[in-house]
TrEMBL record:
Keywords annotated in UniProt: Signal
Cited Pfam families: DUF1223 (PF06764)
Signal peptide from the UniProt entry: 1-20
Organism: Xanthobacter dioxanivorans
InterPro entries: DUF1223, Thioredoxin-like_sf
Taxonomy, superkingdom: Bacteria
SUPFAM superfamilies hit by this protein: Thioredoxin-like (SSF52833)
Protein name stated in the entry: DUF1223 domain-containing protein
Length: 243
């Protein structure tokens, strides 16, 4: 798997001002897509629109299970295929397809169905369960993240740092989309497991060198219930530049 542990990172517990909780938690949208999928470009275009919304963290997760049809996806990570399947295994429908959007780790919509995606976004925004506000900034050669004190109600959460390329345009040479130029937003280029969160206030430090890979110029931080094998709700998130 492409998931890489970073548990050796230092954790120093510290309080976070309660006023930070008044900020809205951004909604996270994960688009499982493929350059070899003929029905994916409209969903890719919709994600590009969502990426412009400051209250949405829209991520492109390219999968590799369409590579056999004649074009190897240049942005795909096998771990994305595993993540999509892990989400599906926890749902009654157990469906895996492209384009598929997963909203806040718990709501699913066909990625090219604008109305269905908007309904999922509205549902996520109206959720009664409060989110966790991550305060993150670049300090020298590291990303510093502040987690507030919170109540997980018996759940387990993990913080993940995902190197992201804000914009990538690909000329697809063969397959169902052969001859097309497709632009992707917030392309996830890897995953670093920062560590677990127990609900105690904490400060974490992530070296930028661990995030600068495969054209990444930003980092998405996801605080998610469950584990890599059984991902649950995303309860906190942030997206910031590595520059």
């Amino acid at each position: 798997m492409f998931l890489r542990s970073a548990l050796a990172l230092a954790l120093a517990f510290a309080a976070v001002p309660a006023s930070g909780q008044s900020q809205p938690k951004p909604v996270v949208v994960e688009l499982f897509t493929s350059q070899g999928c003929a029905s994916c470009p409209p969903a890719d275009a919709l994600l590009n629109e969502l990426a412009k919304d400051p209250q949405v963290i829209a991520l492109t997760l390219a999968v590799d299970y369409w590579d056999y049809v004649g074009w190897k996806d240049t942005l795909a990570l096998h771990g994305h295929s595993l993540r999509q399947k892990a989400y599906a295994d926890l749902r009654p429908d157990r469906k895996v397809f492209t384009p598929q959007m997963v909203v806040d780790g718990s709501l699913v919509a066909k990625g090219s169905d604008r109305a269905a995606v908007q309904r999922a976004l509205l549902t996520a925004r109206s959720a009664r369960t409060p989110g966790v506000v991550l305060q993150a900034k670049r300090v020298g050669d590291a990303i510093e993240v502040a987690l507030p004190e919170g109540d997980l109600d018996g759940a387990v959460a993990e913080l993940w740092a995902c190197p992201v390329a804000r914009t990538q345009t690909v000329s697809i040479g063969r397959g169902e989309n052969g001859g097309r130029n497709v632009t992707y937003s917030n392309v996830v280029r890897g995953w670093v497991r920062v560590g677990p969160w127990s609900g105690r206030a904490a400060h974490l430090r992530i070296p930028v060198k661990d995030l600068s890979r495969n054209g990444a110029d930003s980092v998405a931080l996801l605080l998610q219930e469950g584990s890599a094998a059984a991902p649950g709700r995303i309860i906190g998130a942030s997206l910031l530049s590595l520059d």
